[in-house]
Amino acid sequence: MLTRIKDLAQELAPRLIEIRRHFHAHPELSGQEYQTAAYVAGVLSSCGLAVQEAIGKTGVIGELVGGTDERLVAIRTDMDALPITEATHLEFASRKLGVMHACGHDMHTTVGLGTAMVLAGLGERLPGNVRFLFQPAEEIAQGANWMVQDGAMNDVSAIFGVHVFPSIPGGSIGIRYGALTAAADDIEIFITGESGHGARPHEAIDAIWIAAQVITTLQQAISRTQNPLRPMVLTIGQISGGRAPNVIADQVRLAGTVRSLHPETHANLPQWIESIVANVCQMYGARYELNYRRGVPSVQNDLALTQLLEESAKEAWGSDRVQLLQEPSMGAEDFSMYLEHAPGTMFRLGVGFPNKPNHPLHHPQFEADESAIITGVVTLAYSIYRYWQQPVR
Length: 393
Known about the structure:
Layout: H1 2-25, H2 34-46, E1 50-55, E2 59-64, E3 69-78, H3 105-121, E4 128-135, H4 143-149, E5 156-169, E6 173-175, E7 178-179, E8 183-192, E9 196-197, H5 207-225, E10 232-241, E11 247-248, E12 251-260, H6 263-284, E13 287-296, E14 300-301, H7 303-317, E15 322-324, E16 344-352, H8 372-387
Parallel strand pairs: 3-4, 3-5, 5-16, 6-15
Antiparallel strand pairs: 1-2, 2-4, 6-16, 7-14, 8-12, 8-13, 9-11, 10-12
Helix pairs in contact: 1-3, 1-8, 3-8, 5-6, 7-8
C-alpha cells in the first residue's frame, strides 16, 4: 500500500505545486478565506468527496467514504495568512499588498488536498471514512473553536495535523511526544494612581513607575516562584499611559501574553499574576484591574498516535529523515482545541533549504521547500491507512 500511495503522490506532484503557488499568490486573512475556501471545495468535489462549506464561518469539510471500519479519522489543515508584506521576490509572491502566507498555511492546505486526492485514489482499499478539516482563522486562535461549534469533531475517533518547520531540512519529518506547543493566554492590566506635577512626585501616585514595578516583579517572580522544569514565558508587548512629560500619569494600561506548557501551571496563572499585581499596587497605594483571557491550551500529542506517525514516517522515508524533536515550542496552536474532543497528534514538516538562509515563520522573507509537499502527503496518507490496522482502543 505504501508503494501505491507514493506513486499516486508523485503523479500529483506538479498539480500540487501549482495549487500551492496559487494559494501563496492569493493569501487571505483570518476569517476572510472566502476564495481559498471556494478553491478547496472545488478540488474536494472533483475528487468525489462530500463537501460542506461555511463550516466555522469560512471553513470547509470534505468527507471521504471508505470501508466498514467505524472509526472516523480527521485531518486538519489551516488556510489563513498573516498581515505581513512579502519580501521574497518569488514569481508567485503575494499579489495582495500587506498579506502573506508567512506561516506556511498555503503548504498545509495543499498537503491536506493532496492527502485527500491520494486517499480518494485508493478507492475501495480505504478501510474507513476520513474527514478533512480546512480551518480558517488559526492565526487569531479562533478557527478551531468555530469549527468545533459547527460539529466538525462529531464522531471523530482520532485527528492528525501538520505544521511546516524551516529549522529542519525540506522533506524531513519532526516528531514530538507529549507537549508540542504552549498554552497561550492574554492579559490586560490597568494601574490607577493619582495625577500630579512632575516636580512633586511625593504628592501623587505615579502609575507609570508602579507599572514598571509590576513588570519587573512579574519577570523576577518567574525565576523564583515557578518550577524551572515547567517553562513559562510572560511578555508585556504594549504599555500606554500619561498625557504630558511634566504630568505624573494616573493610569497605565499593560497588555501582553502568557505562555506555559504544563496544565497545572496554566491553571494557576491567573491567581499567581493577580497576587503579584495586587501586592505591588497595595504597597504603593495604587488600584488595579486585571483582565485575564484564556486562549488555547497546549498541544499534547497522543502517545499511541505519535508512535504510529513515527513508524509510518520511518517506513516511508527511512530513519535518517525522521527527527525526534527534543524541545517543544512556546508558540501556540489552536489544533489543541480539537484534542479536547478526540486524541490526536501533530507533526513538523521540514521545509528548510540546504544551501541558502532559512528565515523563520512569520518573517517577510520566509520561503518553503516545495518538495516537502509530497513528504507531507505520503506521511499523512500512510499514517491514516495504518491507523485502521491498529486494534480499537
